[in-house]
């Protein structure tokens, strides 16, 4: 489904990173591990189309991301990628429901994959271990762990083909991190989705099908 | 997207309201200045209405307007009453009202005329001079006074006053041998009429019976006024005359006849032209108003742009989250531009509402107290153009933060 080949990224300070070639298939759960500053988040941003590909290639099925315009990349991201950020990036003045709904707000294609958005949000929330009573609450009223699940629900809504997660467990203790990963594993649809997660925590390796090490 | 947009604004309601208040205040101030400016100009140009020409001794047209209409300065010459009678016989003339100036009361001008003055002379866009108390009666010992004068000097109906010869209250200048009784008090006009006293031409002649070359030779105190022959009270000269023509088309023909009058050098001034000329002379005030208006526009727009930029600075993260969730730069730009449009529209609406309410309730007050003629207009075409300009600049200025957000890389904010 995703093929990363000869990918090289040069930062503003001329520091250059060469990424290994990676193939990700449907239902794959891939973990990218490596020390801080090795380019884990940069790789996710390149796949998400958040930063421009300078050299090399990222193919998403038959689509080559490096050949897409900025606007096409925005549309591509909206339709195909769910992103769980390290900093969660929930909007404080929106309710939990509205934050999750953002996942399909800007993509009619992604919204069309869901018959009943409210019902799907309820299902995701339950599946991620939260009670549906939180839906009306403001995200600022939730614990970090609960907010993490809300961010995951937003990324999963509309069944994007690829779920990107940037250190989503970094703020959680080990037990909570394990629970969170289990819930993600139970929730995402293995028939059409893949997971690519970045972490510096090598103890999570057992949960993933493939591991890519960056140095 | 619109629900998100309004929720976002609701979450920043206080700064949003501050921006709106700031802009609405600026727009209100700008439009108020424009309206007061226009009202001042309007009332200035309508200081005298219904008069087609003013006849006076040949000389400066502006001087003639200044002393006959605004009661400023002194006439350097008079015209004879015979000339006045000759002019009244010209076929184009519909009516003619004489005035004689020279005396005063506590610094206020005394105008000797006849009761036609109150019927023919109009003010503030063809409004008739009307009474608040008493009558227009102008017998030899009657005086009709302007509203401001009555208020400031606390003059009442039937009160007796003694006018002064000339403009100075010097000892020996007072016409203290003959008093005038207040017969009427005029309603406020917002014109120099409010500061004038009106007596009859006969009364004017009467108080000057004992005077020669500006000096009192004898008193008329002990005279039996009723026994003075009418011919002795007939004016020999007047200062100027206001003329109404049968048809305005004949104005230039009539003025030519006046110029060509052989008996004495006189001139006819068209008030509208003279007032416009006068306004252009004192137009430095007008230019000052213009400068102030533009300064307010510039300051308010800079304030608005700054406030929008500041508000967007605090919203960068929110915008980036939208973008990370698939919002295109066009979607984000739409939100920013929509916000600027909303700020602009709400400010304009508030501003126009304030002005409409103020205009509705304060129009009479402005007219009565300051003589500023304001009409109830929700919005004039000029104002609509100004507001459209402000609105468009608000929209265009919102492109700056929109472009900044567009160009910002996602990973700079989200990682």
Helix-strand makeup class of chain B: alpha+beta
Estimate the global geometry of chain A from the Cα principal axes: globular
CATH architecture heading of chain A: 3-Layer(aba) Sandwich
Shape of chain B: elongated
Span between termini of chain A: 25 Å
Whole-number radius of gyration of chain A? Answer: 17 Å
Structural domains of chain B: how many:
2
As for the CATH topology of chain A, it is Rossmann fold
Q: How many beta-strand segments of chain B? A: 17
What is the distance, rounded to the nearest whole angstrom, between the alpha carbons of the first and last residues of chain B? Answer: 25 Å
Question: pLDDT below 50 for ≥5 consecutive residues: which ranges of chain B?
Answer: none
Helical segment tally of chain B?
15
The ordered H/E elements of chain A are: EEEEHEEHEHHHHEHEE
**Helix residue percentage of chain A:** 25-40%
Instruction: Please tally the helical runs of chain A, counting DSSP H or I stretches of 4 or more residues.
Output: 7
Q: What is the average per-residue confidence, as pLDDT of chain A, rounded to a whole number?
A: 85
Amount of beta strand of chain B: 15-25%
What is the count of structural domains of chain A? 1
Provide the gyration radius of chain B in Å.
31 Å
Please name the fourth-level CATH homologous superfamily of chain A.
P-loop containing nucleotide triphosphate hydrolases
């Amino acid at each position: 489904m995703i093929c990363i080949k000869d990918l090289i990224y040069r930062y503003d300070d001329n520091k250059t990173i060469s990424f290994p070639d990676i193939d990700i298939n449907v239902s794959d759960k891939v973990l990218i591990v490596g020390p801080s500053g090795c380019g884990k988040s940069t790789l996710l941003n390149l796949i998400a189309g958040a930063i421009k590909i300078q050299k090399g290639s990222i193919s998403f099925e038959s689509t080559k991301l490096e050949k897409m315009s900025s606007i096409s990349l925005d549309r591509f991201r909206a339709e195909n990628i769910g992103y769980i950020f390290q900093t969660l990036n929930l909007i404080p003045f929106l309710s939990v429901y509205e934050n999750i709904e953002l996942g399909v707000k800007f993509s009619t294609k992604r919204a069309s994959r869901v018959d009943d958005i409210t019902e799907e949000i309820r299902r995701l929330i339950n599946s991620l271990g939260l009670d549906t009573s939180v839906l009306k609450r403001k995200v600022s009223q939730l614990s970090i762990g609960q907010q993490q699940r809300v961010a995951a629900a937003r990324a999963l809504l509309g069944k994007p083909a690829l779920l990107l997660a940037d250190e989503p467990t970094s703020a959680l203790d080990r037990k909570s991190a394990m629970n969170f990963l289990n819930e993600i594993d139970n929730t995402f649809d293995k028939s059409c989705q893949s997971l690519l997660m970045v972490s510096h925590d090598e103890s999570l390796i057992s949960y993933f099908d493939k591991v890519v090490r960056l140095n | 997207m619109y629900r998100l947009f309004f929720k976002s604004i609701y979450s920043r309601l206080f700064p949003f309201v501050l921006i709106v208040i700031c802009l609405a205040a600026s727009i209100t101030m700008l439009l108020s200045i424009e309206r007061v400016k226009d009202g001042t100009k309007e009332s200035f140009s309508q200081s005298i209405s219904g008069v087609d020409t003013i006849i006076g001794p040949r000389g400066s047209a502006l001087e003639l307007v200044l002393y006959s209409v605004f009661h400023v300065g002194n006439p350097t010459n008079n015209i004879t009453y015979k000339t006045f009678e000759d002019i009244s016989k010209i076929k184009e003339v519909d009516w003619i009202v004489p005035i004689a100036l020279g005396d005063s009361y506590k610094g206020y001008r005394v105008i000797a005329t006849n009761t036609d003055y109150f019927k023919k002379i109009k003010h503030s866009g063809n409004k008739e001079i009307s009474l608040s108390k008493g009558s227009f009666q102008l017998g030899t010992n009657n005086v009709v006074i302007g509203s401001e004068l009555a208020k400031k000097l606390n003059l009442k109906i039937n009160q007796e006053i003694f006018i002064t010869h000339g403009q100075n209250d010097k000892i020996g200048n007072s016409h203290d041998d003959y008093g005038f009784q207040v017969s009427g008090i005029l309603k406020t006009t917002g014109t120099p009429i409010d500061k004038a006293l009106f007596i009859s031409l006969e009364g004017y002649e009467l108080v000057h019976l004992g005077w020669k070359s500006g000096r009192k030779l004898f008193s008329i105190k002990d005279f039996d006024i009723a026994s003075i022959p009418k011919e002795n009270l007939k004016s020999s000269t007047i200062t100027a005359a206001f003329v109404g023509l049968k048809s305005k088309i004949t104005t230039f023909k009539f003025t030519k006849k006046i110029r060509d009058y052989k008996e004495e050098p006189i001139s006819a001034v068209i008030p509208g032209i003279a007032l416009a000329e006068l306004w252009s002379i004192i137009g430095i005030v007008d230019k000052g108003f213009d400068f102030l208006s533009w300064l307010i526009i510039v300051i308010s727009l800079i304030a608005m742009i700054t406030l929008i930029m500041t508000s967007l600075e605090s919203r960068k993260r929110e915008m980036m989250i939208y973008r990370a969730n698939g919002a295109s730069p066009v979607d984000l730009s739409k939100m920013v531009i929509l916000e600027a449009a909303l700020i602009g529209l709400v400010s304009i609406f508030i501003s126009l509402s304030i002005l409409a309410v103020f205009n509705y309730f304060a129009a009479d007050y402005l007219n009565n107290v300051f003589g500023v003629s304001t009409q109830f207009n929700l919005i004039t075409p000029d104002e609509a153009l100004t507001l459209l300009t402000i609105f468009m600049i608000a929209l265009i200025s919102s492109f700056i933060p929109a472009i900044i957000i567009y160009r910002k890389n996602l990973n700079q904010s989200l990682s």
